[in-house]
Amino acid sequence: MKAQDKQIGAPMNRVDGRLKVTGGAKYSAEYELPNMAYAVLVGSTIAKGRLTSIDAKAAEKAPGVLAVVTHFNSPKVPGFDTAGKDPSQPATVGGPLKIFKDDKIRYNDQVIAVVVADSWERARYAARLVKAQYAQEKHKTNLEASVSDAFLPTAAKKNPKHPMNDYQRGQVDAYKTGAIKLESEYVIPTEVHHPMELQSITAHWEAPDRLTLYDKTQGTMATRRDFAKEWNLPEENVKVIATFVGGAFGNALHSWPHESAAIIAAKVVNRPVKLMLTREQMFTNVGYRPYTWQKLGMSATPDGKITAITHESIGQTSTYEEFTESTLAQTRMMYQSPNVTTRYRLASLDVCSPIWMRGPGEATGAFALESAMDEMAHMLNLDPLEFRLRNYTEQDPEKNKPWSTKFLKECYQLGAERVGWNKRQLKPGSLRDGEWLIGYGMGVGTFGAHRGAATVGAQLLPDGTVLLQCATTDIGPGTGTVMTQIAAETLGLDPKKIRFELGNSSFPKAGTQGGSSTVNSVGPATQEACLALKEKLRTLAGAAFASAKKEDVTLTDGYLTLAGNAGARVPYADLIKQGGDKAVTVEAKPGPEGQQYSMYSFSVHFAEVRVHELTGEVRVSKLVSCADAGTIVNEKTAGNQMKGGAVGGIGMALMEAAHIDDRFGRYVTKDFADYHVPVHADSPDVQVAFVNKPDPHVNNLGTKGIGEIAIIGVAPAIANAVFNATGKRIRELPITPDKLI
Amino acid sequence: MNQFQYVRPSKPQAAIEAVTKDANATFIAGGTNLVDLMKRGIATPQKLVDINRLPLNKIEKENNGLRIGALALNSAVADDKLVRQKQPLLALALNAGASAQLRNMATVGGNMLQRTRCSYFYDLAMPCNKREPGTGCGALEGINRMHAIFGFSDKCIAVHPSDMSVALVALDATVLVSGPKGERRIPFADFHRLPGDTPEKDTNLEKGELITAVDIPDGPFTKHVHYQKVRERASYAFALLSVAAALDIENNTIKAARLAMGGVAHKPWRLTAAEQVLVGKPATEATFRQAAEVAMQGAKAFKHNAYKLKLGPNTIVQALRTAAAAA
């Protein structure tokens, strides 16, 4: 790609693609430090109670073992001692588990010991020799059995403006008196993120008060803040490095016990300590999409106008932390209904805390809302797409504000054409191909176009490259690639001459990579840092540049040049002599636009499924995902995100479920033989289409965010297609063959 | 991992001796299941006797049949010309199992000796009579969606996970075994056990006995065969339930039939009564349905696997339909 080409929008290959496929990209478990030790966790085998003793003698005597740290011998973690904040009190909003602080067991496989040895194999062997005794208490791990104890989140109780409060416009529960009405219950089981890369960390106390962490995290700054706080250190004494992250889907948005354990272990043995979770521990200690029960009531007029919606949900959380998510947000703004009621509740169970999983909350809520839309359309004998069009919102009915942009109708049109929606029959079970019943379904998704403050540093290096730095992470969407494109276009420089470094808390600060906010936030910071760099170089470039506009200034082949003035050429060396190689650092922040507009990305997913008439097996034969995500900076990486989300949605719809045996309060799904994610054979060639129209309000680039809307709405699209194929409405995910025969 | 000794004899007799003499010794071939079990602390052998150097991987014609060496790789058997020609059902079943990578490591003998995938068996913190006799069956009143509907006991309701074995029991295979007391031949249907009071024993192999080969007699099942495996994803998953079907059809009349089910019992489940229903009847949907009903007699479900009572007959019908239609 040449410098003069338009960079934003170009389908550029990933800047780190070669490193990733050749093994050159270094992930958190791949750092080797001198004198490193290895840690393996030991988990509890009960869900609730107290530890009465731990017999670590055999483990301590095992070959190579350096330490076995438990509640009984752990050094004090100073930040755990904040008075009055007992993590076991559900009355508080709580916080991450404080491991080894007390003898309480709050969930099954809770970390009760960390074994440190001179090799990982030896640590793993010794970990199995640690024996614990418990005083067991009666546990609760079943949400359905805890519905009567469900409560309004504390944050909502304390603050009447908190979004988790009950919401209503018009009349409360007005659907009950509607002419045509439905009332359905929906269940989403616990789903686990399971990125390919296991959670891992290397903790290194470089000095008694200086800590470096090579960690799998979605936010280097957040992780730095958490552990600086845990050890009462100034934030600048903690450095977090996460150059590459092998997927996360939300489970690295939070600090987890294994990170605390590695840091404590490193303190005890006074060596750098590496700790990597097992796949089994990925089920139990790093969050999940919470088991959620929902009830949705809807009424409509015979001509297809929604008159009322009531949407209630109860999500599972732990006893020590109140995890909440926006399960009901989409219901409040997606359709034009004069009466809307939402009620969000939590149930505290003896489980590990959940954490946002791709399309958090909205993906769960959309399963209920978009299934109910299909159910109502069926009752009205209306095409589900037509039903949605009749209730389309031209402005946000919740906030009574204009949309910053909304091109959902364009998405509908793009998707309907590509999937062949005109083949869909109103009557379920009408289409078949031999033994396979064929059906079509759709589901809509939305997610806030969030933007936060971000800072980027830009620097001209003597070799003529421009180095950009930002603390943001790249968990897979291609952040480094699209920032390189934004910088290349802003500077007029060949992308090959740009290096965007990220994943280090020492770099200029940025928020956590989550909530589809990175391009919205770091994109403008990159753009502005590049403009500031050009401006700085212009001022150093002498008379010819004195009155030049910065848009006309470009960096090309070792020279600062000026559009329309071939004679104005200043070699970088001259600029560097005058201090041109010093970095400029610019922060970009959102303005008041969020007060004026309602800003959302939108998506629609269309599925064609085949259901076997005898075995109940479901195969997704077509999946078309269309997004209104503002400007698409790179259609290739953006398309990757959409496809990844769609495949995640197939998993959510058809196979993913983590089950606890409530008698033991313990997961029975603990590996990929029991917990299924889609394989290639389960994924059709997902077709992606973008409206690709800029949003002029979110930021100057016109972006709105992609990651979440890629999955939100996929599961109901598939469930609705299954209904269209079979006439069977499955309201409890996943839709496995046993539910269809 | 536990410390263990490792030996790699080159003669079958030496391997047999090594395992016979040592109470905690076990054979290892592909290791695709054993290594997992060792990593999790479920199997803790103190000596591994690697048999990969033994000359047991041939696939050859033998006395009106096919002899497949115990060390022949699953992928090699599935791709073998003789196998595809004489026993295509076996190739279909093999290719329905695991992944290409695993089939490239797993051997025929090892496939038969796979242990159950019951999640209670796999978790040291859960009760399991198969893993630790006397601790109880976790699945009996637990989450038993994957579990048995035939031949179980109150000690164990686990199922055997192999696809290959379902085809072999249907094809009247014989297992050739060499042990400290010499050689013997075990009919495939008697190779695996029902759990009874000793679910810790999966098979009737005795200590030190080494599987050397499997014999499959030639038969008429070279065309109308099908292996129907039902699972919630398209590939790389253990069966919710599977059916191996083989028919010999002449003028639309079934002359001979073989039928077996997987994912329903502690062993591959041969359906001889249903086979008898099929023989002499026209190859029609009604015949298949009738056979399927007979096949399910005596089936009993638990809390989460009642769907198998319906999925079973449906899958039998589907397998027979497909086998009959195979050109």
- In angstroms, what is the radius of gyration of chain B? 19 Å
User: What pattern of helices and strands is seen along the backbone of chain B?
Assistant: EHEHEEEHHHHHHEEHEEEEEHHH
Shape of chain B: globular
Q: What is the strand content of chain B? A: 15-25%
Estimated structural class of chain A: alpha+beta
| Top-tier CATH class of the domain at 224-325 in chain B | Alpha Beta
The total count of strands of chain B amounts to 12
Superfamily (CATH H level) name of the domain at 224-325 in chain B: CO dehydrogenase flavoprotein, C-terminal domain
- Chain pair with largest interface: A-B, 37 and 34 residues
Query: For the record, what CATH class of the largest domain in chain A applies?
Result: Alpha Beta
Keywords:
heterodimer, A: 741 residues, alpha+beta, Aldehyde Oxidoreductase, domain 3, Aldehyde Oxidoreductase, domain 4, seven-stranded mixed beta sheet, five-stranded mixed beta sheet, 18 helices, 31 strands, globular, B: 327 residues, Uridine Diphospho-n-acetylenolpyruvylglucosamine Reductase, domain 2, Enolase-like, domain 1, five-stranded antiparallel beta sheet, four-stranded antiparallel beta sheet, 12 strands, 29% helix, 21% strand, CO_DH_flav_C_dom_sf (chain B)
Describe this structure in words.
- The complex is a heterodimer of chains A (741) and B (327).
- Chain A is of the alpha+beta class and 741 residues long.
- Chain A folds into 3 domains: 30-138 and 195-248 and 252-284, Aldehyde oxidase/xanthine dehydrogenase, a/b hammerhead (Aldehyde Oxidoreductase, domain 3); 148-190 and 289-450 and 596-740, Aldehyde Oxidoreductase, domain 4 (2-Layer Sandwich); 452-589, Aldehyde oxidase/xanthine dehydrogenase, molybdopterin binding domain (Aldehyde Oxidoreductase, domain 4, 2-Layer Sandwich), CATH 3.30.365.
- In chain A, the strands form 8 sheets. Chain A has a 7-stranded mixed sheet, with helices on both faces. Chain A has a 5-stranded mixed sheet with strand order 7-15-14-13-8, with helices on one face.
- In chain A, α9 (362-380) runs parallel beside α17, α12 (479-491) runs parallel beside α13 (518-540) and α16 crosses α17 (714-726).
- Mean pLDDT of chain A is 95; it is low at 83-92.
- The longest helix of chain B is centred in the C-terminal third of the chain and has 19 residues, at 307-325.
- In chain B, β4 and β5 (65-69) form a beta hairpin.
- Chain B is globular and about 60 Å long.
- Chain B has 12 helices and 12 strands.
- Chain B has helices spanning 12-21, 34-39, 74-79, 81-86, 88-96, 100-103, 108-112, 164-170, 188-191, 272-278, 285-295, 307-325, and strands at residues 5-7, 25-28, 47-50, 59-61, 65-69, 174-179, 182-187, 210-217, 224-230, 241-250, 253-262, 269-270.
- In chain B, the strands form 3 sheets. In chain B, strands 4-5-8-6-7 form a 5-stranded antiparallel sheet. Chain B has a 4-stranded antiparallel sheet with strand order 9-10-11-12. Chain B has a 3-stranded parallel sheet with strand order 1-3-2, with helices on one face.
- At the A-B interface, α3 and α18 of A face α12 of B.
- Chain B: InterPro entries: CO_DH_flav_C, CO_DH_flav_C_dom_sf, Diverse_Substr_Oxidored, FAD-bd_PCMH, FAD-bd_PCMH-like_sf, FAD-bd_PCMH_sub1, FAD-bd_PCMH_sub2, Mopterin_DH_FAD-bd.
- Chain B: Keywords: FAD, Flavoprotein.
